[in-house]
Amino acid sequence: MTEILIVESSSPNLASSRRQQGRAAPQNFARVFSAVTPSIKIRVAEPYKTEMTRADFAGVDGIVMTGAGDEWPANDDLARPIRAACDLAFETGRPVLGVCYGLQIGTICLGGEIAACRKGKETGLALNVELTRKGAIHPMMKGRRSGFSVACAHRDEVTRMPDGGDCLAFNAHSAVQAMAVRQSGADFWGLQYHPEISPSIVANAIRENGSLFFNTGVAVKDLLTVESDPETANRLGCSVDDFEINTRTRELTNWVQYVAGQAALTA
Predict the structure, then answer these.
(1) Tell me, what is one Gene Ontology molecular-function annotation carried by this entry (predicted)?
(2) Is pLDDT of 34 > 90?
(3) CA nearest 116: which of 158, 151, 79?
């Protein structure tokens, strides 16, 4: 049975609030993974609440570093508990997936750099995401075609990939929308966008008072209809097909299948 450890990257208060609403990051990932592999076993860790140790990773086949919604960037001192957890994840040699903030945390831990997006926050949708030559043949992007759009909400971006990193996808807003890194035993796949959620969930973050993304990006009413209304999708520059469940979660399906395959090789 495949076992995944999901590391909650948000601070306890924020994570608790979202969990009560059914939209905490681990819940979003668990729904997708359980649909792909019903027998999957999922554990959740919260490094801001309890410092993680090597023992927390025992028996784990893959690790997810989630997105977050706190004010501090991944390279801030306040993010040290999450970076420490990510360092331990890489030490296991198991596949690690980082999404949004998780991508940025992994980038810092592996020696890369991040900074505030030069074009400002990308909120609502990452439009027209193009695959690189390496992305077109990488297992994470299997089933993806260039020019797709997907939910997103980020303030920072990767400005320098770690050594051993390959850019797999980009768009007009951010030069690194997806990357993969092989370095000193680390096996890292990272996404700047959010395949685990629909645009309507991003809409909740945008209208959440006090959120980093409050009233920024695509209009809430458009995010609530873009999944089903071709006219809205066309106006925004995407397609309703982008948000069909099997399409928008493609990278997560590919990753959990990859994790199972790697676990079988080392069994």
Answers:
(1) GMP synthase (glutamine-hydrolyzing) activity
(2) yes
(3) 158
CA distance 50 to 85: 10
pLDDT, mean of residues 154-169: 97
pLDDT tier for residue 21 given thresholds of 50, 70 and 90: confident
3-266 CATH: 3.40.50.880
Average pLDDT of the segment spanning 145-167: 97
Torsion from C-alpha of 17, 19, 24, 28, nearest 10 degrees? -160
- Size of the chain in residues: 267
Q: Which amino acid is at 83?
A: R
CA pair distance 48, 84, nearest whole angstrom: 10
170 in Cβ contact with 177 (< 8 Å): yes
Query: Do 57 and 5 contact (CB within 8 A), yes or no?
Result: yes
Whether the CB-CB separation of 167 and 134 falls below 8 Å is answered with: yes
Task: Give the tens place of pLDDT for each residue, 79-107.
Answer: 999 999 999 999 999 999 999 999 999 99
User: What 3-state class would DSSP assign to 83?
Assistant: helix
Q: Give the domain ranges of the chain.
A: 3-266
Exposure on the CB side of residue 63, measured as CA atoms within 13 A: 31
Q: Which of 53, 25, 56, 59 lies closest to 41 in space, CA to CA?
A: 59
Q: CA-CA-CA-CA torsion for 252, 125, 159, 250, nearest 10 degrees? A: 20
Quote the pLDDT of residue 87. 98
